[in-house]
Design a protein that fits this description.
Blueprint: H1 2-20, E1 23-31, H2 34-39, H3 45-53, E2 57-61, H4 72-83, E3 88-92, H5 100-103, H6 105-114, H7 117-123, E4 132-133, H8 144-156, E5 160-161, E6 166-167, H9 170-182, H10 186-215, E7 221-226, H11 229-244, E8 248-249, H12 252-255, H13 275-278, H14 283-291, H15 297-309
Helix pairs in contact: 3-11, 4-7, 9-10, 9-15, 10-11
Protein backbone atom coordinates (compact mmCIF):
# COMPACT_ATOMS: atom_id res chain seq x y z
CA UNK A 1 0.00 0.00 0.00
CA UNK A 2 2.83 2.37 0.90
CA UNK A 3 4.44 1.59 -2.43
CA UNK A 4 1.29 2.64 -4.32
CA UNK A 5 0.90 5.76 -2.17
CA UNK A 6 4.47 6.75 -2.98
CA UNK A 7 3.96 6.09 -6.70
CA UNK A 8 0.77 8.18 -6.83
CA UNK A 9 2.47 11.00 -4.94
CA UNK A 10 5.44 10.87 -7.32
CA UNK A 11 3.18 11.06 -10.38
CA UNK A 12 1.24 14.00 -8.91
CA UNK A 13 4.41 15.89 -8.05
CA UNK A 14 5.82 15.24 -11.53
CA UNK A 15 2.61 16.48 -13.15
CA UNK A 16 2.55 19.62 -11.00
CA UNK A 17 6.19 20.38 -11.78
CA UNK A 18 5.54 19.87 -15.50
CA UNK A 19 2.47 22.11 -15.39
CA UNK A 20 4.44 24.83 -13.58
CA UNK A 21 7.41 24.84 -15.95
CA UNK A 22 7.57 28.09 -17.83
CA UNK A 23 7.72 27.89 -21.59
CA UNK A 24 7.68 30.26 -24.54
CA UNK A 25 7.39 30.32 -28.31
CA UNK A 26 9.39 33.04 -30.04
CA UNK A 27 7.48 34.64 -32.92
CA UNK A 28 8.89 37.23 -35.32
CA UNK A 29 6.63 39.48 -37.40
CA UNK A 30 7.29 41.46 -40.61
CA UNK A 31 9.69 38.95 -42.13
CA UNK A 32 11.74 39.56 -44.23
CA UNK A 33 13.36 42.92 -43.48
CA UNK A 34 14.78 43.53 -46.95
CA UNK A 35 16.19 46.99 -46.13
CA UNK A 36 18.37 45.51 -43.39
CA UNK A 37 19.26 42.62 -45.71
CA UNK A 38 20.51 45.10 -48.32
CA UNK A 39 22.38 47.24 -45.77
CA UNK A 40 24.20 44.17 -44.45
CA UNK A 41 25.46 43.10 -47.87
CA UNK A 42 22.66 40.66 -48.69
CA UNK A 43 22.89 38.88 -45.36
CA UNK A 44 20.29 38.40 -42.66
CA UNK A 45 22.39 38.61 -39.53
CA UNK A 46 19.31 37.88 -37.40
CA UNK A 47 18.77 34.60 -39.26
CA UNK A 48 22.46 33.75 -38.89
CA UNK A 49 22.24 34.25 -35.13
CA UNK A 50 19.06 32.20 -34.89
CA UNK A 51 20.84 29.44 -36.79
CA UNK A 52 23.49 29.31 -34.07
CA UNK A 53 20.95 29.40 -31.22
CA UNK A 54 18.60 26.92 -32.90
CA UNK A 55 15.49 27.28 -30.74
CA UNK A 56 12.01 26.95 -32.29
CA UNK A 57 10.85 30.16 -33.96
CA UNK A 58 7.68 31.09 -35.86
CA UNK A 59 7.83 33.83 -38.49
CA UNK A 60 4.97 35.88 -39.92
CA UNK A 61 5.56 37.01 -43.46
CA UNK A 62 4.60 40.15 -45.36
CA UNK A 63 5.23 39.20 -49.00
CA UNK A 64 4.87 42.86 -49.96
CA UNK A 65 8.24 43.44 -48.26
CA UNK A 66 9.92 41.63 -51.16
CA UNK A 67 9.17 44.62 -53.41
CA UNK A 68 10.52 47.26 -51.05
CA UNK A 69 13.96 47.25 -52.69
CA UNK A 70 15.10 46.80 -56.29
CA UNK A 71 16.39 43.27 -55.68
CA UNK A 72 13.18 41.22 -55.73
CA UNK A 73 14.90 37.97 -56.79
CA UNK A 74 17.47 38.19 -53.98
CA UNK A 75 14.72 39.10 -51.52
CA UNK A 76 12.77 36.02 -52.58
CA UNK A 77 15.87 33.89 -51.97
CA UNK A 78 16.13 35.51 -48.54
CA UNK A 79 12.55 34.53 -47.75
CA UNK A 80 13.23 30.99 -48.94
CA UNK A 81 16.25 30.76 -46.65
CA UNK A 82 14.02 31.69 -43.70
CA UNK A 83 11.13 29.38 -44.36
CA UNK A 84 13.12 26.23 -45.13
CA UNK A 85 15.00 26.19 -41.81
CA UNK A 86 14.07 23.10 -39.81
CA UNK A 87 13.43 25.09 -36.62
CA UNK A 88 11.15 27.67 -38.23
CA UNK A 89 7.34 27.55 -38.41
CA UNK A 90 5.80 29.68 -41.15
CA UNK A 91 2.87 32.09 -40.89
CA UNK A 92 1.00 34.62 -43.07
CA UNK A 93 0.95 38.26 -41.93
CA UNK A 94 -0.86 39.56 -45.05
CA UNK A 95 0.77 41.03 -48.15
CA UNK A 96 0.86 44.69 -47.17
CA UNK A 97 0.43 44.68 -43.36
CA UNK A 98 -2.99 46.31 -43.46
CA UNK A 99 -5.07 46.89 -40.34
CA UNK A 100 -8.29 44.89 -40.58
CA UNK A 101 -10.23 47.44 -38.50
CA UNK A 102 -9.36 50.14 -41.04
CA UNK A 103 -9.33 48.11 -44.25
CA UNK A 104 -12.66 46.30 -43.88
CA UNK A 105 -13.57 42.72 -44.76
CA UNK A 106 -13.19 42.64 -48.55
CA UNK A 107 -9.89 44.53 -48.75
CA UNK A 108 -8.37 42.59 -45.86
CA UNK A 109 -9.51 39.25 -47.29
CA UNK A 110 -7.73 40.15 -50.53
CA UNK A 111 -4.60 41.20 -48.62
CA UNK A 112 -4.56 37.92 -46.69
CA UNK A 113 -4.90 35.80 -49.84
CA UNK A 114 -2.27 37.84 -51.70
CA UNK A 115 0.08 37.32 -48.77
CA UNK A 116 0.26 33.54 -49.17
CA UNK A 117 1.11 33.13 -52.88
CA UNK A 118 4.93 33.19 -52.89
CA UNK A 119 5.25 31.49 -49.53
CA UNK A 120 3.11 28.53 -50.58
CA UNK A 121 5.12 28.21 -53.78
CA UNK A 122 8.41 28.19 -51.88
CA UNK A 123 7.08 25.59 -49.45
CA UNK A 124 6.30 23.05 -52.19
CA UNK A 125 8.17 19.82 -51.57
CA UNK A 126 9.47 20.97 -48.18
CA UNK A 127 6.99 19.01 -46.07
CA UNK A 128 5.91 22.24 -44.42
CA UNK A 129 2.55 23.99 -44.66
CA UNK A 130 1.37 27.55 -44.18
CA UNK A 131 -0.90 26.88 -41.21
CA UNK A 132 -0.71 30.08 -39.16
CA UNK A 133 -2.04 33.60 -39.58
CA UNK A 134 -1.43 36.69 -37.48
CA UNK A 135 -3.35 39.94 -37.88
CA UNK A 136 -1.12 42.98 -38.44
CA UNK A 137 -1.21 45.20 -35.36
CA UNK A 138 -3.18 42.28 -33.82
CA UNK A 139 -6.27 44.22 -34.81
CA UNK A 140 -8.92 41.55 -35.26
CA UNK A 141 -11.85 43.79 -36.18
CA UNK A 142 -13.78 46.69 -34.75
CA UNK A 143 -16.67 44.66 -33.32
CA UNK A 144 -17.83 41.10 -32.64
CA UNK A 145 -19.51 40.71 -36.03
CA UNK A 146 -16.42 41.80 -37.97
CA UNK A 147 -14.22 39.57 -35.83
CA UNK A 148 -16.45 36.52 -36.32
CA UNK A 149 -16.72 37.06 -40.08
CA UNK A 150 -12.97 37.25 -40.63
CA UNK A 151 -12.27 34.39 -38.24
CA UNK A 152 -14.71 32.17 -40.14
CA UNK A 153 -13.04 33.08 -43.43
CA UNK A 154 -9.51 32.39 -42.19
CA UNK A 155 -10.50 29.08 -40.58
CA UNK A 156 -12.19 28.08 -43.85
CA UNK A 157 -8.82 28.64 -45.55
CA UNK A 158 -7.13 26.31 -43.06
CA UNK A 159 -5.45 28.96 -40.92
CA UNK A 160 -4.87 28.92 -37.19
CA UNK A 161 -5.22 32.48 -35.90
CA UNK A 162 -2.13 33.17 -33.84
CA UNK A 163 -2.27 35.21 -30.65
CA UNK A 164 0.52 36.48 -28.44
CA UNK A 165 0.82 36.91 -24.69
CA UNK A 166 4.04 38.90 -24.28
CA UNK A 167 5.49 41.80 -26.24
CA UNK A 168 7.78 44.58 -25.08
CA UNK A 169 7.27 47.34 -27.65
CA UNK A 170 10.36 46.49 -29.68
CA UNK A 171 8.80 48.56 -32.50
CA UNK A 172 9.21 51.61 -30.22
CA UNK A 173 12.69 50.79 -28.92
CA UNK A 174 13.98 50.02 -32.41
CA UNK A 175 13.24 53.54 -33.66
CA UNK A 176 15.26 55.06 -30.81
CA UNK A 177 17.98 52.46 -31.26
CA UNK A 178 18.30 52.99 -35.01
CA UNK A 179 18.40 56.79 -34.58
CA UNK A 180 21.24 56.51 -32.08
CA UNK A 181 22.98 54.02 -34.36
CA UNK A 182 22.65 56.30 -37.38
CA UNK A 183 23.96 59.25 -35.36
CA UNK A 184 27.05 57.22 -34.50
CA UNK A 185 26.19 57.27 -30.80
CA UNK A 186 27.03 53.65 -30.08
CA UNK A 187 26.99 54.19 -26.31
CA UNK A 188 23.41 55.48 -26.42
CA UNK A 189 22.39 52.73 -28.85
CA UNK A 190 23.80 50.07 -26.54
CA UNK A 191 22.05 51.57 -23.51
CA UNK A 192 18.73 51.47 -25.41
CA UNK A 193 19.35 47.86 -26.41
CA UNK A 194 20.17 46.82 -22.85
CA UNK A 195 17.09 48.63 -21.56
CA UNK A 196 14.99 46.75 -24.13
CA UNK A 197 16.33 43.42 -22.86
CA UNK A 198 15.76 44.41 -19.23
CA UNK A 199 12.20 45.58 -19.92
CA UNK A 200 11.41 42.42 -21.88
CA UNK A 201 12.39 40.22 -18.95
CA UNK A 202 10.33 42.40 -16.60
CA UNK A 203 7.32 42.00 -18.87
CA UNK A 204 7.78 38.23 -18.95
CA UNK A 205 7.87 38.21 -15.15
CA UNK A 206 4.73 40.31 -15.03
CA UNK A 207 2.70 38.11 -17.38
CA UNK A 208 3.88 34.93 -15.64
CA UNK A 209 2.74 36.44 -12.34
CA UNK A 210 -0.55 37.67 -13.81
CA UNK A 211 -1.34 34.33 -15.47
CA UNK A 212 -0.61 32.53 -12.20
CA UNK A 213 -2.96 34.90 -10.40
CA UNK A 214 -5.71 34.47 -13.00
CA UNK A 215 -5.27 30.82 -13.98
CA UNK A 216 -3.34 29.22 -11.13
CA UNK A 217 -0.19 28.59 -13.20
CA UNK A 218 2.17 30.18 -15.70
CA UNK A 219 0.66 29.72 -19.15
CA UNK A 220 2.70 28.76 -22.20
CA UNK A 221 3.78 32.17 -23.46
CA UNK A 222 4.00 33.46 -27.04
CA UNK A 223 6.49 36.29 -27.43
CA UNK A 224 5.97 38.75 -30.29
CA UNK A 225 8.85 40.73 -31.77
CA UNK A 226 9.95 41.93 -35.21
CA UNK A 227 12.64 41.45 -37.83
CA UNK A 228 14.75 44.55 -37.16
CA UNK A 229 18.21 45.73 -36.20
CA UNK A 230 17.39 45.85 -32.50
CA UNK A 231 16.47 42.17 -32.39
CA UNK A 232 19.39 41.26 -34.60
CA UNK A 233 21.65 42.52 -31.82
CA UNK A 234 19.59 41.84 -28.69
CA UNK A 235 17.10 39.00 -29.22
CA UNK A 236 19.90 36.48 -28.55
CA UNK A 237 20.42 38.15 -25.16
CA UNK A 238 16.70 37.87 -24.37
CA UNK A 239 16.76 34.18 -25.29
CA UNK A 240 19.88 33.65 -23.15
CA UNK A 241 18.27 35.33 -20.13
CA UNK A 242 15.06 33.32 -20.55
CA UNK A 243 17.16 30.15 -20.68
CA UNK A 244 18.83 31.24 -17.43
CA UNK A 245 15.35 31.51 -15.91
CA UNK A 246 14.68 27.89 -17.00
CA UNK A 247 12.21 28.63 -19.76
CA UNK A 248 11.55 25.83 -22.19
CA UNK A 249 11.51 26.97 -25.84
CA UNK A 250 8.63 25.31 -27.67
CA UNK A 251 7.34 25.37 -31.21
CA UNK A 252 4.09 27.16 -31.86
CA UNK A 253 1.96 24.03 -32.21
CA UNK A 254 3.07 22.75 -28.80
CA UNK A 255 2.46 26.11 -27.14
CA UNK A 256 -1.00 26.48 -28.62
CA UNK A 257 -1.91 23.02 -27.33
CA UNK A 258 -2.01 24.61 -23.88
CA UNK A 259 -5.74 24.59 -22.98
CA UNK A 260 -5.52 28.29 -22.14
CA UNK A 261 -5.64 29.05 -25.87
CA UNK A 262 -9.17 27.69 -26.00
CA UNK A 263 -10.28 30.34 -23.48
CA UNK A 264 -13.01 32.78 -24.42
CA UNK A 265 -11.85 36.08 -25.89
CA UNK A 266 -13.94 38.73 -24.15
CA UNK A 267 -12.51 41.73 -25.99
CA UNK A 268 -14.44 42.89 -29.05
CA UNK A 269 -12.45 45.91 -30.21
CA UNK A 270 -9.54 46.42 -32.61
CA UNK A 271 -6.74 47.14 -30.11
CA UNK A 272 -3.88 44.66 -30.30
CA UNK A 273 -2.96 43.84 -26.72
CA UNK A 274 -1.98 40.58 -24.99
CA UNK A 275 -4.42 37.69 -25.03
CA UNK A 276 -3.94 37.35 -21.28
CA UNK A 277 -5.86 40.62 -21.07
CA UNK A 278 -8.39 39.47 -23.65
CA UNK A 279 -9.23 36.46 -21.48
CA UNK A 280 -10.32 38.75 -18.61
CA UNK A 281 -14.11 39.09 -18.68
CA UNK A 282 -14.42 42.22 -16.52
CA UNK A 283 -13.31 45.34 -18.48
CA UNK A 284 -12.41 47.17 -15.25
CA UNK A 285 -10.15 44.33 -14.13
CA UNK A 286 -8.66 44.19 -17.62
CA UNK A 287 -7.83 47.92 -17.54
CA UNK A 288 -6.32 47.57 -14.06
CA UNK A 289 -4.10 44.70 -15.20
CA UNK A 290 -2.98 46.65 -18.25
CA UNK A 291 -2.18 49.70 -16.14
CA UNK A 292 0.01 47.56 -13.86
CA UNK A 293 2.17 46.29 -16.73
CA UNK A 294 5.81 47.47 -16.48
CA UNK A 295 6.67 50.44 -18.65
CA UNK A 296 9.35 53.07 -19.06
CA UNK A 297 8.00 56.66 -19.09
CA UNK A 298 11.44 57.91 -20.14
CA UNK A 299 11.47 55.70 -23.21
CA UNK A 300 7.90 56.66 -24.08
CA UNK A 301 8.81 60.36 -23.87
CA UNK A 302 11.94 59.88 -25.96
CA UNK A 303 9.85 58.10 -28.59
CA UNK A 304 7.25 60.89 -28.63
CA UNK A 305 9.99 63.52 -28.90
CA UNK A 306 11.58 61.62 -31.80
CA UNK A 307 8.31 61.52 -33.69
CA UNK A 308 7.64 65.21 -33.04
CA UNK A 309 11.06 66.00 -34.49
CA UNK A 310 10.13 64.13 -37.65
Amino acid sequence: MKKWTFLIAFVLISWICSAQQRSVSITIDDVPNVHLFKADGNRSKLLEKLDSIHVPVAIFINEGNLKQTDAAAKNKDLLKSWILKDYITVGNHTFSHSNYGDAGFDAFKKDALQGEVITKDLLKGSGKKLDYFRFPFNGMGKDSMEQAKMKDFLVSKGYVITPFTVESEDWLYTQLYEKAFQDGNKELADSIGKLYVKMTIKVFDYFDSLSTKLHGRPVAQIYLCHDNLLNTNYLPQIIQQLKAKDYKFADLAETMSDPIYKSKDYYKGNEGFSWIYRWIADPAKRRAAMKAEPSSPEVQKAYEDLNKAK
